[in-house]
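Support request, priority: normal
Reporter: lab tech (M.K.)
Component: structure prediction queue

Hi team, I submitted a job for Nxf3 from Drosophila busckii yesterday, and the status page still shows it as pending. I've pasted the exact input below so you can check whether something in the sequence is tripping the parser. The sequence length should be 518 residues. Please let me know if I need to resubmit or if it's stuck on your end.
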Amino acid sequence: VGSVLDKYVREQTTNRTKTVTGWYTVTINDCWRVSKCSITLALKYALMPLDVQLFDFKSIGDGSKAQFFVDNILMANRLRRLNGKVALLYSNRNIEFNVETGLPADLKQPTNVLLSAMKTALLARYDEHNKTLDLTRFHTAAELKDEFCPLHVLSMLEQLLQLISNELTELRVLRISDNYICSLSAFAKCQTLPALQLLDISANRLEQVEELKHLQRLKLVQLNIEHNPLAKQPIFQIREMLPQVQFIVGCVNKQEQDGQIKTQPLPKHKIRTVPSASHAFCISFIKFYYTLFEERAQRIKLKEYYDDNAMFSLSFKVVCHKKSDIKKLHVGLDNIVQTLNQLPDYKINVADLQLDVQCYDNQLRMFTVSGSCQESTNSGWHARDFVRTFRLRGQSLSPLPQPVCWLIEYDMLSFGLAEELPEIEATNSDLNEQMQQLSAKMPELMLEAKPVAMQQEQSNATSLLPSSFETMPPLVPVAQTTIGVQSILEREIQDTLLCSDDELLIINEEVLLEPDEL
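Reply from support: The job had stalled in the queue. We restarted it manually and it finished. Here are the results:
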């Protein structure tokens, strides 16, 4: 039964964030000769889908009572409501709880056995490659299964920091979030951590700015204080307490000392002046990117610079037949690379491009580049103008605060013709002028008046024509230089055949058959 309940709880709490919201002491009365397994199984059934974790379960007094601890207020409140309503399996006995806020005041100092378990858990959570130590919810470590080590207790935190300073002298990133720590005075008693650059104390119970004075000896570059009551204090007070910290993460009160609130300005949809650092970064990225983008043979290398779930949007002002089957939006690394390989070769002069930076910070960088390029076609190089927007996300491959690499998260490319035909205004004078210009460029189509001699000759020839084609005399070939009845007949036949689309040329059987065959 226990395994089935554990599986159900795991499925229900897969995406649930676990946070320590307080420590509570639970005392069970009248549990003589009741095993821990029976009590745990009954609580799992009653508290579903909560993940029941009972810390430091032990018998107290003469064995008729049991005690354990829970680390969140949700479970403590449910235990209060279920007091006397939870029955042991295969029994009619109900369990009575007594839930008190906090931990016992006589919680013993760390023993040698506990210190040894703490050291084992500490080394198990240490990432030597990145010099990172993650102590999030440290009391839930598997190495502390038989011991109880809440960092909420000041003596426990002091012993742990002492172990860290002795064992991990090259530590650069320390995360002690989600431990319900109320004071940082333990940092003042431990030896200095010379290589520590990033300290994460988020999701704790730090309230006063004065607690940060215990971190003044550390050479921190970044401090994360989010989800602490301390995060609501003005940021200038935190900077005054820790002037060496460059990045403060999680502070919700951006009020500076002069009372002004500094906020990130909205992006402007026009070219504007940007800081030199952001401008240099964007220009270097564009030069590197278009070095690989200009030739299709090199575009396969761009696969390393797109995120696995990146999006690529492509649009053309005038869609060519070759690209008519290209979708407008592509998601996924393989689809993006395949789409880029379908585009022709380009020649782009980066020095002539215009740059607009919308966002530039330590985690996200977004900018737009626009200009003209030369596109390779069957008839040569064709000019196009384009606008392209990149959104890059920093990748923390190293424990340093600054990301060591950036991946393209979103790429939007829009093409258009560099030179467009001017629009024709609907005015009579302009239309007449344009028609005259077109007529001057058109080849001569014998639209001018016929000479008088030719008109006289045609009128004489017309009088000699028979009344119908049926009685037409046989044609006699003559020299081409002679203009006579035959040439006039050929001209008339040609005019008849080249009739307009609205007229129909009817040929019946009498035309196709000889008179003798009728």
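The chain has a mean pLDDT of 76. The first strand starts at residue 24 and ends at 29. Let us know if anything else looks off. Ticket resolved.
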